[in-house]
User: What shape does this take?
Amino acid sequence: MSTQMNAAFFEEFGEPDVVQSGKLPKPEPGEGEVLVRVKSAGLNPVDYFVVRGFLEERIPAEFPAVPGWDLAGTVEETGFAASRFKPGDEVYAYARRPFIRHGTFAEYVIIPESYLALRPQIISMEETGGIPLVGLTAWQSLFDAGNLQQGQTVLILGASGGVGTLAIQLAKTNGAEVIGVASKKNHGYMKELGADHTIDYSDNHVGEAASAIAPGGVDLIFDCSRGDAFGQVMEAGVLKEGGKIVSITKSKPDIPEEIDFSYVFVEPNARQLEQISELADAGNIRVPVTKTYSLDEVPEALKAIEKLHTRGKIVVTP
Assistant: This one.
């Protein structure tokens, strides 16, 4: 059995072109760990930030470092005391560790078995690899931080991206009314996912448009956008009294202190992935994959995700 694997890795922080593809030692699972053959790994904006070194203070890197935190694949080997899965099981996970080294843009990755869940069976391996980070981010933002309830209204800013794609679907499965904000070209896409109303941020004052749709205000504002929409929403006073704001892009927004605000930086959670699997196998979750890239093409993929205007998911297939 080969002791080497193909991987995309970087040995210093910098622009996407610092990422190279080549051979690295194949990792071996330790106690409580599982070796997974990666079949699909979703690409996320945070992967670009990792390569640039923007998260170095929070999550240090050990070089050579393999980026990537999403994975779908097959269990290859289990370490001592890892008994939840067996070789051949198809699994998926959000693989963020306390440091950046063994990422998922590689043929193999080691991961604590507690991170893993059995993958959905009625969607492809490529689609599955696009779920973990965005699915858990949407879940933890809408339900853990946002406490979204059936019959409530959620306004999602940046609703056509990876997190927004899952947020629309999860909110609808929970019986909420969804207002999605994105460019006009993505309105049909958001409607297909289940959005009840759509707003074009480039041709409207988003706050005024949202107020026209929900005159009584919205219960939750979920901010997945880095544009001007959040400021416009706050100007218009769209949030109901007692409503909540959750953001994955702004940790300290300029808003009144009395507003119930949460910043979410997603955490691994296998139980929530199991629940998302159940929803996917029931036909309630799908993950449109816009494009796939090989390990050799990871720099190109990072440049694409840097623009923050992608629809659905971009996936790396080692």
Observations:
- The first strand starts at residue 4 and ends at 9.
- Residues 64 and 195 are 42 Å apart (CA to CA).
- The mean pLDDT is 95.
- DSSP finds nine helices and 15 strands in the chain.
